[in-house]
Amino acid sequence: MFVEPCNIAQRFRSLKGRVFVIAELGFGTGLNCAVLCDLFLRLSNPPDRLQFISFEKHPLNKQEFQSMAERRSTALPIYTAIAKTYPPLLGGWHRRTLTGGKITLSTFFGAADTGLMEMLQHGSTRYVDHWLLDGFAPAKNPDMWKKNLLLNLGKLTAPHGTVATFTAVGQVRRDLANAGFAMRKVTQHPYKRHSLAGEITRPGNTEQVISEVMVIGGGIAGACMAASLAEQGIKVNLLEPQIDTERAGDISPVLLHARLLADDSLGALVRSRSYLHSAAWLSSNPEFMASGVLQTLGANTDLEKLQRLYARYQHSGAWIQLLDAADASKIAGSQFKNPALYFPDSGIADLGKLRRSLYVHKNIKPIKETVTGIHQISGGWQVHGVSTSYETRDLVLCPGENASDFNLLGYLELAHTSGQLNTLSQSLEINLPIVGEGFVCPKFHGKSATIGATYEHSTWPQARATAHNLDRFKAWWPQISRQALEIGTSDLKKVSRGRRSTAIDRIPVIGPVYDTDLQALPHLWLSCGHGSSGLSSAPLGADIITSKILKLPPPTDPRVAEHCSSLRFRARQKKRG
Would you say 240 and 397 are in contact if contact means Cβ atoms under 8 Å apart? Predict the structure, then answer.
């Protein structure tokens, strides 16, 4: 019904390295998605990619979806990958990368007309190659067949794009024709009498095709940026002076942990969506260990706060759980005294190994280069390095603590801090990282248990930082655990130090670079100010910028990008005069 009338199989066979975009109104159990993804994997060639976009007003929860997917995965193995990173029940956009980047799945939980409008506002016009309208007739599901909704379908359709519908109601056919489709009836005996199919009548697309982007900075933000672009088939030149060595920010181990807020603020939205996006994005990386993380009581976190955090998000799925002391003890491997929040998708990574693993992609060319400056040229940007100069249309700056090296970034309000972790010489019998007053991490990548971290606005002597980590841990641990520990300075055998760059309002900086007139500089992008939350915010920041460059659907609620925009600094400075 949705494949043969629009010749989808042949179109998959003849992509010649292009991306094919399918959009569906009504994700439901994901059956159409799974069938078409399976067909694409069987018929397409290695360079080809599929983007599947789906809108669902009443999504299943993750447990329901995984149970259903398990039953169907024998016939359609792609169901396993879809179910593994199925989104939580939070409204808006969710993006997942499947099968090593060959398939990108974007789901919108909410009213389809809202999601379509956000696509248009994001610049995703003339984009979709094939529409699946898998809904009941207008009499049973009127919201799906609104005239304005169908008009927006036409605006979002690529040249030669097609549409297929389950219903054959005359009003739907007329409204789709009004949206620009040449419609026809398709016989569907013996399943039903007719369905509809059509092709857009608009002339060909003349927009420039983007094939290459340059990224400056190979820290976690730059590595995520390069990987995000590469997954979309874009060639990336990644400039980094320490491409093969440790960087100043490579403190290890690092945690992916949800630093949630219990209110309805935009800051809370940024934190929750960043964490959830990154947990799914990192789950397939072998350098990330999804160990889970327990959040316990601390000086700024009492039991009431843990309960409020859980109450705020519990409806959306089991990614956040409030455990009593007995269950927390079982998971931790230590006798807990109090309840704790459990984040099963959180985990640990060696930051240096993780970022270098992200460089390993056929579309990424790491270049060992120290950048001395950039300036705008006709149609893009010129980058000056110590060894040579480069030209590019789109340029993404991921400068870490070196934002001040670029004159165009002088308006950013960033603070730099140092941090230190200490490794214990003795064994600490815990099963997963625990956060509260700082954090403690179990043995990982050959290292013994680690405690930390310091936040040093002016760099401390190593001995002072060691004493701070030790004193804080010795005060905190007895408050949460009955496991006796006798630790002294002599038990701390190794130090890991790093530097962080954080926006003064503790919100990452993601999106275009702006001039003094509050106008975005064309084709110049920025991801920085992630601080100690880079493992959480950098992957989403990368996908936000990739979506802007390529005019893809948003990877998350568009308000996240708005709140993280560097325009906030220009606007404040203009207001202050």
Answer: no
Place of tokens 């009213």: 111
Instruction: Return the SS3 of 345.
Output: coil
What separation in angstroms does the CA of 15 have from each of 130, 202, 279, 534, 553? 14, 20, 32, 36, 21
- Could you tell me which residues are beta bridge partners of residue 92? 109
Cα angle vertex 372, ends 366, 378, to 5°? 85
265: tokens are 């603020």
- State pLDDT tens for residues 444-486: 766 678 998 999 999 999 999 999 999 999 899 888 888 777 7
CA 441 – CA 427 distance, rounded (Å): 11
139/324: higher pLDDT: 324
pLDDT of 493 reads 77
**CATH fold group of domain 212-247+352-413+505-576:** FAD/NAD(P)-binding domain (3.50.50)
C-alpha dihedral, 153 to 157 to 161 to 164, nearest 10° = -20
**Which superfamily does CATH assign the domain made up of 4-200 to?**
Vaccinia Virus protein VP39 (3.40.50.150)
CATH entry, 293-344+415-503, from 3.30.413.10, 2.40.370.10, 3.40.50.720, 3.30.9.10: 3.30.9.10
Task: Judge whether residue 497 has pLDDT over 80.
Answer: yes
Q: Does the structure show a pLDDT above 60 at 543?
A: yes
Q: Do residues 296 and 480 make contact, with C-beta atoms less than 8 angstroms apart?
A: yes
Q: Whole-prediction pTM value?
A: 0.94
User: Taking Cα atoms as reference points, which of 517, 299, 547, 509 lies closest to residue 406?
Assistant: 509
Q: How many other β-carbons are positioned within 10 Å of the β-carbon of residue 99?
A: 16
Q: What percent of the chain has pLDDT over 90?
A: 76
* Whole-number Å distance between alpha carbons of 49 and 350: 30
